[in-house]
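hiii so um. not sure if this is the right channel but i have a protein structure encoded as tokens and i wanna go backwards to a sequence. like what aa goes where. can anyone help
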């Protein structure tokens, strides 16, 4: 197949596998999840992203990366698990049996969505721990804040976010872990258990080019 023939072939494959009823149902699910009308720009944008991702699965040459963009958009939109399953089922109609991208969609969207919702609980827990008058409380506070930074780092990694921003949040998380270890070294009855100076971090030398 020549490059000029690929778009037409992709549209034929897309139209053959397209399920109008399921597509309409997904639109209603998304609108309900976002508490919006079906023609709301947020709903329209997600439905357009769904079409683009489906065309990418069908081999359309102009839709490279659309599948990942859909996963990220879903992960950022706080959709229900039921809606994500419906989207995944719709996408599977266009995927070859050996195509792993649908599994990556479920993993990316699900992990991002759960990570975002989990940050609220982490921040609440950190606020509670911040009021404890003991070294254990201070260490717990630092670790909970570290978890929040590391969760945000993971979300940005899944979204293929800016590398400098990812490094900044990762560094902040590590600094909080270090602060928790300092509390243990300085104030616990077994400071040696909090001494992790033998822990090695990878460097550019480990890249092995």
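sure thing!! here u go:
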């Amino acid at each position: 197949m020549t490059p000029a023939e690929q778009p037409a072939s992709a549209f034929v494959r897309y139209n053959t596998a397209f399920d109008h009823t399921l597509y309409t149902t997904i639109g209603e699910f998304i609108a309900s999840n976002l508490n919006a009308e079906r023609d709301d720009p947020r709903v329209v944008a997600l439905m357009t992203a769904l079409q683009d991702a489906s065309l990418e699965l069908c081999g359309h040459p102009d839709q490279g990366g659309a599948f990942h963009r859909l996963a990220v958009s879903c992960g950022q939109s706080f959709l229900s698990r039921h809606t994500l399953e419906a989207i995944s089922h719709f996408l599977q109609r266009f995927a070859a049996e050996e195509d792993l991208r649908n599994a990556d969609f479920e993993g990316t969207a699900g992990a991002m969505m759960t990570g975002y919702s989990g940050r609220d609980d982490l921040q609440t827990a950190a606020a509670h721990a911040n009021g404890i008058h003991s070294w254990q409380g201070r260490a717990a506070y630092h670790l909970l804040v570290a978890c929040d930074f590391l969760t945000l780092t993971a979300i940005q990694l899944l979204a293929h976010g800016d590398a400098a921003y990812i490094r900044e949040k990762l560094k902040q998380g590590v600094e909080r872990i270090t602060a928790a270890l300092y509390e243990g070294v300085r104030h616990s009855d077994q400071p040696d258990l909090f001494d992790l100076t033998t822990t090695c971090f990878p460097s550019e030398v480990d890249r092995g080019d």
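oh and Helices lie at 6-17, 20-33, 41-57, 66-76, 81-92, 101-129, 135-158, 163-187.
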